Amino acid sequence: MSFDLSVTSSKKIILAVTGGIAAYKSAILVRRLKDFGFDVRVVMTRGAQAFITPLTFQALSGHPVHTELLDAEAESGMGHIELARWADLLLVAPASCDILAKFACGLADDLLSTLYLATNAPVWVAPATNQQMWAAPATQRNLKTLVEDGVHVIMPASGSQACGDVGLGRMPEPEDLAYQVMEYFHKQQRAIAEKFGLLAGKRVVITAGPTREAIDPVRYISNHSTGKMGFALAAACYAAGAKVTLISGPVSLDTPNGVKRLKVSSAIQMLDESMQMLDKGCDIFIATAAVADYRVAEVAEHKIKKAGDELAVSLIKNPDIVATIAQQEKRPFMVGFAAETRNIEEYAAGKLVAKKLDMIACNDVSRADIGFASDENAMIVFFADQYHMEKRELEKASKQDIAQQLVEAISDAINQEQQPV
Ligand code: C5P
């Protein structure tokens, strides 16, 4: 599954490290959080510094580590109130029994306990402690208080402990923790998109990639489509609040987070899945797939043996998926793509009319720098209703940016359609 890193790269995390042997895991945690694009600042208690040095965290986070509350020099940089306001999340990992007790009582006698009181960001604690200390009534009482105060407690795992005991108290692995943080921000972003996104509540179906038309059990006819544009559009539609189904031919791309993917091979299978999706309900149909125009008339049951200097394979026309969907009674808003090598605008506008589409996005695949296997694209978009045709040029940009511009164009067109005349 692929995640949209733009969601996490704008987020700021304070990772607070307290005294405990699990502090060594926090060094890896910084790396994993940075891998997701988070901006990470590290705060350390005095106890933490007995286990691992601030220099380690400074090198990994790329920022000076915050250790003191009443340090004039540190306060003249980013003071504790500023730091508390800066954060989108305060993650305490490992959280010692001592810091849980301080949080629960509202003490403010060091930097971390003060930050806890001063921030209105969500607070997560990942307790890591000896199993006896974890089970102690005072610790459990403090945890209960913290949960009541709205703190998210990441339960420790069970297993062998550094002190030789076996039981509850191990800090979860850094990979798990970083993943949970990343998922949290994605869910938060999704909730906003579902309410306010450009395609909030819309059901979008996207065809993508090439199709494979079998010749015999081991051979097929296909094309060079990588599916990148369709996958980028699926991610952009999801980010805009839509419910997205991607019907894709064989490609080597990860499914974007949140997108439902149906894997197909031939054009006939792609059409079948598209019709089924139409039955289930579809508001916008986007055809980015490079569907093979022809398929083999009679697929050989067994591998065709080498014989003679020539081999003739008879081809028959495949159904036009986007045109078929556009003819249905329950017709969604229809978006097609056109890849041309010449007379681009003329051919694209012709296809818009011939296939009865609402919008067509076309690009010049004769240009080596854009199109098919490239990561960049430049497009011209035509919209049409029964009265007029409109043109919009999209600048050369990454397929992600083009996908975003297309989402805006689709949203504009849909909203225009819904305006009373
Ligand atoms: O006719 P042409 O292949 O150039 O049209 C391109 C557009 O039509 C694309 O949106 C493509 O996904 C769609 N198409 C289709 N089924 C076909 C051929 C093309 O949906 N059999």
UniProtKB/TrEMBL annotation:
Residues 11-182 form the Flavoprotein domain. It comes from the Bacteria. This is Coenzyme A biosynthesis bifunctional protein CoaBC. Keywords: Decarboxylase, Flavoprotein, FMN, Ligase, Lyase, Magnesium, Metal-binding, Multifunctional enzyme. It comes from Acinetobacter gerneri DSM 14967 = CIP 107464 = MTCC 9824. In the N-terminal section; belongs to the HFCD (homo-oligomeric flavin containing Cys decarboxylase) superfamily. Catalyzes two steps in the biosynthesis of coenzyme A. In the first step cysteine is conjugated to 4'-phosphopantothenate to form 4-phosphopantothenoylcysteine, in the latter compound is decarboxylated to form 4'-phosphopantotheine. Pathway: Cofactor biosynthesis; coenzyme A biosynthesis; CoA from (R)-pantothenate: step 2/5; Cofactor biosynthesis; coenzyme A biosynthesis; CoA from (R)-pantothenate: step 3/5. Its EC number is 4.1.1.36, 6.3.2.5. Binds 1 FMN per subunit.
